[in-house]
Design a protein that fits this description.
The chain is an alpha+beta fold. The chain has 2 domains: 14-163, Sandwich (Jelly Rolls); 175-286, Arc Repressor Mutant, subunit A (Orthogonal Bundle), CATH 1.10.10.60. The chain is built from 11 helices and 6 strands. The protein has helices at residues 14-20, 100-105, 121-139, 145-163, 175-189, 205-212, 216-227, 231-249, 254-260, 266-277, 281-286, and strands at 22-30, 43-56, 59-71, 77-82, 86-93, 116-118. Strands 1, 2, 3, 4, 5 and 6 form a 6-stranded antiparallel sheet that branches. A hairpin with a 2-residue loop joins strand 2 and strand 3 (59-71). 26% of the residues are buried. InterPro entries: Homeodomain-like_sf (IPR009057), HTH_AraC (IPR018060), Tscrpt_reg_AraC-type_HTH (IPR020449).
């Protein structure tokens, strides 16, 4: 069974990172299980060489050889196992350092896309050169280093997209598939929940139907045809996923999580969570 280390990153000065907005560093060669990165910290991208397993949003992804990886902080994630010694480079940056919407819309950071881009020898050499130059700029005293770092990040992202195009390019067969895609996109945009005093706006199929200007029966038929699940089931699944993430990766009280997810009373949330997961929120948090 894979075990996740839950301590914070020991070498990362988060106060300094938040002030500067970015950090570039070489990854130490190690066979130890790396620390858990958490959920609401910073965007990350890196170049790694070795063998390891990443838990990204509950999906285990294996890296073998040299690869780029891109981490969205809103997706629960952790490096859970290293098989051989690994090394490479990493760049960590805040959402405000780059345009937040551009990051969220980028296929490399989008929920559901594969965040790992495998590289051949030629691609690995080119990317290694870019990260080395970026590290040199970071360690230097160039007056406009932040602007140059942004350019390097953008270049690496675009080169990665050129190597591995987005896997989920919308191709609408008919009106039903288009509406279903719009529903899914709107559903994902409700998350992650960042503030406990700003409850979820859209909770029911009727809410989404009104927002999309379609009849709720048409929405239900379209979503079921495309996803195989009802609109309510899709909404419930996403709310439960967010609830689990908040229980595991925040210090909010259960009552705060309940309100943030649109439940008027904590008891309603407790019953909802137990009905769909078989466990109470407090029990799940202790596991």
């Amino acid at each position: 069974m894979l075990e996740e280390e839950t301590t914070r990153i020991p070498w990362l000065n988060e106060v300094d990172l938040r002030l500067k907005g970015f950090k570039v560093h070489a990854l130490p060669e190690s066979t130890e299980v790396p620390v858990k990165a958490g959920r609401r910290d910073f965007y990350k991208m890196g170049l790694v060489n070795g063998e390891m397993t990443i838990n990204y949003g509950g999906q285990l992804l294996d890296i073998k050889g040299t690869a780029l990886f891109f981490v969205n902080p809103h997706v629960p994630h952790a490096l859970v196992r290293r098989i051989n010694r690994t090394g490479g480079y990493a760049c960590i940056f805040t959402e405000t350092f780059l345009n937040g919407r551009d990051l969220q819309d980028s296929p490399l950071f989008r929920v559901g896309e594969n965040p790992v881009v495998s590289l051949n020898a030629e691609q690995a050499a080119f990317m290694t050169g870019l990260f080395k130059k970026m590290l040199s700029v970071y360690d230097g005293d160039y007056l406009y280093k932040s602007d140059l770092i942004k350019n390097y990040i953008a270049l690496i992202i675009h080169e990665a997209l050129r190597i591995q195009p987005a896997q989920h390019v919308p191709a609408f067969r008919n009106g039903e598939s288009r509406i279903s895609h719009q529903f899914t996109d709107l559903l994902e945009k409700q998350f992650p929940i960042e503030r406990s005093d700003e409850p979820l706006r859209l909770r029911s199929p009727q809410d989404y139907a009104r927002h999309l200007n379609v009849h709720v029966n048409y929405l239900n038929r379209s979503v079921r045809e495309t996803t195989g699940k009802t609109t309510s089931a899709n909404i419930s699944s996403r709310i439960i996923a967010e609830a689990k993430a908040l229980l595991q990766h925040s210090d909010w009280a259960v009552a705060e999580i309940a309100y943030a997810l649109g439940f008027e009373y904590p008891a309603y949330f407790n019953n909802y969570f137990k009905r769909l997961t078989g466990s109470t929120p407090n029990t799940f948090r202790k596991v």
